[in-house]
Write a structure and sequence with these properties.
Elements: H1 7-17, H2 27-30, H3 46-49, E1 53-54, E2 60-64, E3 73-79, E4 84-92, H4 103-111, E5 115-116, E6 121-122, H5 127-133, E7 141-152, E8 158-169, E9 172-175, H6 176-183, H7 209-232, E10 243-247, E11 253-258, H8 263-286, E12 293-295, H9 301-313, H10 324-337, E13 347-358, E14 366-376, H11 389-402, E15 411-413
Parallel strand pairs: 1-8, 2-9
Antiparallel strand pairs: 2-3, 3-4, 4-7, 5-6, 7-8, 10-11, 12-15, 13-14
Length: 414
């Protein structure tokens, strides 16, 4: 493959070891793709438009990492003025281009998914689809599947919903950082206040920066309401530590740091979760004998007991793992406290020889008596940490890493 230690060779070896197909797409696959060029650009057809809801005038935008090139989802927000909010989740319609039984379909089925590495991605579909025709790029018409709800602005409960094929035209591509800047109120009616602004941001169409900023703030406000109520009903969040890598111009990792989860990340997460749950319900009700669904089984009981004992031993607090709601409440209570619970090491009995005494019944007889003394030592090899905020932060990071070990992988079922 190449020289050991070389980033390219090591990457190829990693892909081969895990059975990831990184070969170029075959001519048979390429023949299945639309033929487009600057002189012959792709466009929406009248016949296809007649089958879809036309949402091209709606204010729709994507929120993704700044380096994302395959934009497969977008959001929309509209205050209906009657105590309800219209929320749209729009997903790129890949199925329009990947027809059943074709070489492209077989290749996509074989690759199964796009594989993301630190410095590159191995696509499931050719670039003309995943980075162009099936990417919800701003300022161009794109086919999508849309889920649109009217939600109560107070509770997030669904009042009305619609699922179907659509045509959209995204007005801008926001990064998580840019969306967070809007949430923080630093962008009001222009892009001033953003650290880096691309000339491709737009906004496109008749929409303004001020309108987009208000939509992001509205999405955030409703998402936080939905998130709070979801946890009150028993949801569990175990945010593990995620690393992000810094790359040089050649794509070689040169540094790493902890990835900061912002409210903008949680905003997108909340609406994608809503879409997943509601679409699953729709599929299950419409195709009860054919729906392929996913669920998370209960945790491994032994591992959960070990995790709970560890939390107690290090002073993190008593953890109740009887349900997802109680587990989340226990961790939330510990984090609200912010310090470890000071614990005295348990006392263990040791003996030391006492002074020699004479018996009243026999002057020559000598009896050794023992005097019990107390000596402190830890009950285990775990370090005894100070009950301060710095020690708590150290333990909390370990807890976040360990908390997922008792969880089982998601299972697919019909």
């Amino acid at each position: 493959v190449g020289v050991a230690g070389d980033i390219g060779a090591e990457t190829e070896a990693l892909l081969m070891e895990n059975g990831v197909n990184s070969l170029p797409f075959t001519p048979q696959v390429i023949q299945c793709l639309p033929v487009i060029s600057p002189q012959n650009p792709w466009k929406v057809t009248d016949s296809e438009l007649a089958k879809r809801r036309d949402l091209r005038s709606s204010r729709i935008f994507s929120i993704d990492p700044p380096t994302a090139r395959d934009l497969d989802d977008a959001l929309s927000y509209r205050d209906m003025g009657d105590g309800t909010i219209e929320i749209g989740v729009h997903i790129a319609d890949v199925s329009h281009f990947v027809l059943p039984g074709t070489a492209l379909d077989a290749e996509a089925r074989d690759r199964a998914t796009t594989v993301y590495l630190v410095q590159k991605a191995i696509p499931m579909l050719p670039g003309v689809l995943c980075e162009d025709l099936c990417s919800l790029n701003p300022g161009v018409d794109r086919y999508a599947f849309s889920a649109i709800w009217r939600l109560s602005s107070e509770t997030g409960d669904i009042v009305e919903e619609w699922f179907g094929k659509s045509v959209i035209n995204s007005c801008t591509k926001l990064s998580y950082d840019l969306a967070q800047t809007m949430i923080d109120g630093k962008i009001v009616d222009n892009w001033n206040g953003a650290d880096k602004v691309s000339s491709t941001l737009g906004p496109y169409g008749k929409h303004t920066v001020a309108e987009i900023a208000q939509d992001v703030i509205g999405l955030h406000k409703l998402a936080m309401t939905m998130r709070r109520l979801r946890f009150e009903r028993g949801a569990l969040s175990l945010d593990g530590i995620k690393l992000t890598f810094q790359l040089d111009t050649d794509g070689t990792p040169i540094g790493t740091c902890q990835y900061a989860i912002k409210d903008s990340n949680r905003l997108v997460e909340e609406y994608m979760l809503l879409a997943n749950m509601q679409v699953a319900k729709k599929i299950a009700s419409g195709f009860p004998h054919h729906a392929l669904l996913r669920k998370h089984p209960s945790p491994h009981q032994r591992r959960m007991r070990q995790f709970m004992e560890f939390c107690t031993d290090v002073g993190y607090g008593e953890i109740d793992g009887s349900s997802s709601k109680s587990l989340n409440a226990s961790i939330k209570e510990a984090r609200a406290r912010g310090t470890l619970i000071a614990k005295e090491p348990p006392l263990t009995s040791t003996t030391t020889p006492a002074t020699e005494t004479s018996s009243s019944s026999s002057s020559s007889a000598k009896q050794l008596t023992k005097k019990t003394t107390q000596k402190q030592r830890p009950a285990s090899d775990l370090p005894v940490l100070e009950a301060d905020a710095a020690s708590f932060e150290y333990v909390d990071q370990a807890i976040r890493l360990m908390s997922t070990r008792s969880m089982q992988l998601a299972k697919y079922f019909c």
